[in-house]
Each structure stands twice: as C-alpha cells, then as structure tokens.
Amino acid sequence: MGLVFILFLLLLLLGMPAAFAIGISGAFFFFVTPDLPLAITVQRVLAPTQSFNMLAVPLFVFAGNLMNNTGITNRLIKLANVLTGRMHGNLAQTSCLLSVLMGGVSGSANADAAMQCRIFRPAMQEKGYSMGYGAAVNGYTSLIVATIPPSMGLIIYGSVGEVSIGRLFMGGFVPAILLGIAYMFTIRQTAKARGYAPERTERAPIGEIGKAALDSIWALLFPVILIVGIRFGIFTPSESGAFACVYAIVIGMFVYKELTIEKFKETLKNTAGDIGIIMILVSLSGIFGYGIVYDRVPQALAAFLTGITDNKYLLFFIVMLMLTLAGTCIETTVVALLMTPILIPVVTSVGIDPVHFGLIMMTVVTMGIMTPPMGIALFTTSSLMKCSPEETTRESVPFIIATLVVVCICVFFEDLILFLPNLVFG
Questions:
Q1: Considering 125, 351, 374, 392, which has the largest number of Cβ atoms within 10 A of its Cβ?
Q2: Which among 282, 276, 357 has a CA at the least distance from the CA of 313?
Q3: What is the pLDDT of residue 374?
C-alpha cells in the first residue's frame, strides 16, 4: 500500500485532479496484487454510492443552493450587520457571525468563503480594509461551517466511519460557537489595531434587532428542525436532506416569494456540477478504501502509534499533526474519505470517542483549505479579493492561532463537546 500512497501523492504533485489521482492509484493496487480480480474495482466504484446515509450529501448540496436563491442569505447578512454594527471591524465581524448563521444552510466551507468574498469585497475596499486581511477573515471564519449541521464533512465522516450522524450534528454546535467567539475576539483586536472603526456609535435598538431576527427566522430554525427530526425518529439523516430541499422550496416560493422558475433552473444547473464533483470523489475513493482495508493499514497504524504512546492526549496530538499536514496538501473531502476508516480504529483503541474525534478532525482538516501549499480556499479567497496568496497567508497568522487554541480546548475538555450529544441522544 506504500507504493499506492506514493503514486497518489506524485499524481497530485503533477497537477492531476484529486478524483482521478485517487482512482488511478487505487486501481494500481489491484494490478500489483495478483490474487485480487480486477472486476472488484468496478464493484468498489459503485459501492460507496449505495450508502443510504451518503444520499444526504447531494440532497443537502441542493438544499443549500436553493436557500442561497430564496433571500435567506440576504436576510442573515442584515441580521449579522445589525448585531455587529457597533464593533471594531464590523464588516469582518459580520462575516464571522454570518458563518455561524449560515453553517446550517450552506454546509460547505469553501462555498461559504467564496460567497462572503463576493458579498463583502466592495464594502471592505470602500472602508479601506486590506484585501489580504479581508481574504483571511472570509476564509477562516468559513471554517465554522465544518461542524454546524448539516456539514458535508460530518456526513461523510459519519457515513464512512459508521458514526451516528445525529450525534455529530448535535456535537458540532459547541466547537462552532467556540470558533465564532475566538474569531470575533481576534477580529476585534486586529481591527482595533488597524483603525477599522465601527459603523455605528450606538447599539442597534431592540426593535431593529427583533425585526431582523424575525425576517431570518426560517433560516435560524432550519438546523433546529433537523436535529429535532433526527432525534425523535421523524426522519433519518438522509431523509432530513430531502426534507431540507422541500423546506427551501416552500420558503422560497411561498414565504419569501423570491424563488422564480429561472432561479430554480439555475440552481439545478449549479447543483448538478457541485454533486458531480463530490460524488466522483466518493465513488473513486471506494477503490482506494478497499486497498486500505485489504492491506490492514488501520491495524498496522494503530499498532505503530500505540507502540509510541498509550497516552490518549499525546496520541490525539500526533494524529492531529498528521491531519494538519494532510489538510494542507489534499482537499478536505478526500482526507475525510481516505483517513476516516484508517484513524477511527486507532483512536478508539485508546478510548477516544469517535464523535469527539470526528468534530476535531473535521475542524483541523478544514483548516487546511486556507493553508499553503494547496489550500483551495486560500487561492479562492485571494483571487476573489484580488490579492496574493502570500498576503492572505501573512494576514492569517492570528486566525491560525485562534483556531489552534479552540482545537486544544476541544481536545482537553471532552465532556464539553459531548455534553449536547449525550443530553439529546443519551
């Protein structure tokens, strides 16, 4: 399996799309293993798509795109702006708060980062914000989406690792809120030092806040309805994706009345492209994943790491370091698909709860999308904000520190992270 990993990394370095690098290197394993029939490669491509839980991924992608075309996003921006108008760097604060509010709508950190760059760039430029600073803010605050339901990463982690998606969704709120607080504090300190003055001198009146919250109520209720529905068995995680699509259509057409036939057609077109990218990764990873299991990689890695230490916190940090390095070079979905079946046996062998581990894993891996050399969101935000990736990286240092502080809190205070899943699901 070592040759397969080397080939995979080599293909990535040569610029091959990740999906094809996974498929080719996975097929290579079958060519160099004589006792494995090649027909299994076709079966393994199809197998991941037959997972009922994995059906939630395309459904939530469709629901997220629908909600972005129903006026929900604009109402959330208005609410976030009303709440943060008196803070230093209020445009950056609005971006952060919007990520907290949008987590249950978009489900994708990269999509959230790109959307916020398009929304906030003109205003940030007009207010004299550094474009690198704006790119760093929009990129790092989007990491909050990694754990707020319905996070695509958590669905993939739960499906591949056979971990309760309902517990993952419930557990995601605490890390997301901690990240939101850490980023808002970081923005306040950096914006104050740079002289990014507040937009308002007085707090927004209660009536104005109430009106903005009421306008956004359907978006704010969305993740709550998902959790309640899953907890009480009204629907499974996959069925909740179908519910989300119907919910978005009803709100868009009959409540806000902004989802026209033209917008619906455009949403279908964009969703087809998004789903195609995700599902080809999921399908081809089935070949690679079969080789990992067949070659007993999880057992070998577990034996190696536990041979180094049986202290779960030290092992936690070794694994987190591995994931951080992987996240800087490989797209988040790929890491989740390939590393989840390898690492879950390792961490559970030393008593780490798979829900606890999954929430931290997705936060750390998602941080890689803003980290050189291959962070997809780093290049996306830099391009949209019209600055260099080097400038964005320099401006990102305070946000990297804030992220690592939150990760450390999550590692050492397991009961804090698992409190809500245990309370709701027992």
A1: 392
A2: 357
A3: 64
